[in-house]
Amino acid sequence: MVNLIGTYECKVDAKGRLMVPSALKKQLAPMLQKGFVLKRAVFQPCLELYPMEEWEKLMVKINGLNRFKKKNNDFIRRFTAGVKSVEVDANGRLLIPKDLVSFAGIEKEIVLNSAINIIEIWDKDKYEEAIDESTENFADLAEDVMGNDDFDGIS
Question: How many angstroms from the chain centroid is the CA of residue 128?
Answer without folding.
Answer: 16
